[in-house]
Amino acid sequence: MLFCEKCKNRRLPKWIKIENMTLWLCETCGDFADAKNNVVREVEN
């Protein structure tokens, strides 16, 4: 299980069909990370 570096909550796997890969979504802050814990999409607050 990957944890969000920003808010320390768990990330949940989300399949992204267009990109044909799984990204990890932090439901607290809304950021997506790849399997290596690199943030690939960040929600601006």
Secondary-structure map:
Elements (H helix, E strand, L loop, with lengths): L10 E6 L4 E6 L5 E2 L5 E3 L4
Antiparallel strand pairs: 1-2, 2-3, 3-4
What this model shows, in words?
The chain has 45 residues and is mainly beta. It contains no helices and four strands. The chain has a four-stranded antiparallel beta sheet with strand order 1-2-3-4, with no helix packed on it. A hairpin with a 4-residue loop joins strand 1 and strand 2 (21-26).
Secondary-structure class: mainly beta
Task: Work out the number of β strands.
Answer: 4
Distance between the termini: 25 Å
Query: Which sequence of strands runs across the widest sheet?
Result: 1-2-3-4
Mean pLDDT: 85
The main pleated sheet reads as:
4 strands, antiparallel
Radius of gyration: 10 Å
- Bin the strand percentage: 35-45%
Q: Tell me the series of helices and strands, N- to C-terminal.
A: EEEE
- Unreliable stretches, pLDDT < 50, 5 or more residues? none
Shape: globular
Report helical residue fraction: under 10%
Number of helices: 0
Tell me which oligomeric state these chains represent.
single chain
